[in-house]
Design goal:
single chain; about 650 residues; alpha/beta; Rossmann fold; GMP Synthetase, Chain A, domain 3; seven-stranded mixed beta sheet; 30 strands; about 30% helix; binds 5'-O-[(S)-butoxy(hydroxy)phosphoryl]adenosine
Length: about 650
Amino acid sequence: MSANGEYQTSYDPPKDLQAQAHVNSLDEYKRMYDQSLKDPEAFWGKIAEDFYWKKKWDVIEKHNIDTSKGPVSIEWFLGAQTNLAYNAVDRHVEAGMGDRVAFFWEGNDVDQSRTVTYKQLQDQVCQVANFLLSKGVKKGSDVTIYLPMIPELPATMLACARIGAVHSVVFAGFSAESLAGRIEDSRPSVVVTTSGVKRGAKPIELKKIVDEALALPGTDSVTTVLVYDHSIALPRNKVAFTEGRDVWWQDVVPGQPTEAPIEWVDAEHPSFKLYTSGSTGKPKGVLHTTAGYMVGAATTFKYVFDHRASDVYWCTADCGWITGHSYVTYGPLFNAASQVVFEGVPTYPDAGRCWDIVDKYNVSLFYTAPTAIRSLMAAGDEFVTRSKRSSLRVLGTVGEPINPEAWRWYNEVVGGGRAAIVDTWWQTETGAHMITPLPGAIPAKPGSATLPFFGVEPAILDESGKEVEGPGQGYLVVKRSWPSMLRTIAGDHARFEQTYFNVYKGYYFTGDGARRDEDGYIWILGRVDDVINVSGHRIGTAEVESALVGHHLCAEAAVVPVEHAIKGQVIYAFVTLYGDATYPPPEETRKALIAQVRKAIGPIATPDVIHWAPSLPKTRSGKIMRRILRKIASREEDQLGDISTLADPSVVETLLSLRGK
Ligand code: WT7
């Protein structure tokens, strides 16, 4: 707080950082940004020179995102051939950086750590690639990865990329049913997992979850399960083993040759699928490709974290999410970064773990989510101040809007006022940062993602689809393609066009609301569709509803988001039971329904509240009025607005009488 009691609203880049930054003034940012839009060929062509291309491109970019002009298609670096794994690993080894540390692995427990150099990573990537080849995996094959945050996770992703296989990493916190659904959609022959993992004090039997998934229908494509014996979490003699299908990593990978062929693939060859929730239906397989993704992930990493060779970088995200793809596996390695890979959770063994790790490895660039920042903030400053943290230069945040209190705490307590905060807005679909400060160039405002990255042309539309010029708010859209953008939804191009390009013709629709202020800064307001952002993770209301009605007692369910001090949003479910149930039903019913959601999706989708609803507020045409449910869930029933369109307005009174029951 300043002397007159007001909070500072704008923060200039720290002077030391700015003096050496890749982009060191707002003017320089603007010059580069303008060029990136006016002459994308020159701008991206120059950046792309930094990578290895087996064959150079003929055309930088070609796209149609206007469905009224024909099918949506997006292509970057047409005619080029390259390989992601070669650019992430081999290129650096060949340039003499083989001894450089790629990963400082820090296990769940404080005494567990190991180091992997670029040369060691290259060897391991080749060994895994050779194993996959020996099992018939080839260019274009799908591989499902269900691993915790051990170095073998990025290594397996890179092994797929090396041979042109398409990886689908499933976060190892999703349930057997979720995993099975993703396997059914991409039909891999190989699944890679571990015996188990410990997250904090909690052991999780990952192999057992894979076994359960593979017992479900639709998963018969899988003929091999490669199991890393993560004995410090769960030794292999505690794990069930299916002869002929299961193989222990330690038995079959280390014996493979440390050289493997590289599959040079076309620029638009698929690199990975990552399943994410939408407002309707099942999770969709967002498909990313090769050259544009590479250039996008690498360039944002370099500029947004202002990365240089002497940095130690650490992103707390799991590779099961896009943040772990672009900012653990790919972006940092394309830049030959040294990074911490952390298996555990920020609060184990206590809330000082992150800052102890920062001191242990002299982390200079740190990247996490607002939910983690808020929970550490709630634990008390003493967990932070027991560490020095003098190495920190850039502090990043991602996943949901960050409230100004948490932003200031991150800046002042964690960063000691010496580091720059970068609030990075982007999505699974965008592949890389879209709206974000550059730490040496763009003054930050707490709560704003600030200005667009190079090549990104955002706009804000009003209800009628008209662009809002100057200050104002509405729907956040993007006006042209950018290199790392998704290319389709795997197996469902129609859904891709429908979801992202048919909402407003000629624009990519983000699903977020946003406000632009008088300085042109963008403030993300959150989702405008039926997606709930729990601790930075996207959960579709439709998915939770379908999990609930999957239980034999549940006739109907309606799920809405409610604001939460630490998690950002939580899941609030209104549930109608079958037949002549009495309300409230016995406590076991609530437990059974919650267990059902955890089984169908995973613990991250656990509803915070189940609110019994003998009936739901509906219009005469039978449409659930979610607006009313949101108000009731948020205890704002004094602002219900017009309820006269309800088929039966008395439903509201009944709902209110059952609150907390
Ligand atoms: C949604 C995308 C991108 C990696 C993590 C989440 C929200 C993301 C921010 C931010 C405000 C943010 C948006 C977006 N979001 N970053 N800095 N400020 N909101 O990826 O699961 O694809 O979710 O997360 O609502 O649409 P995701």
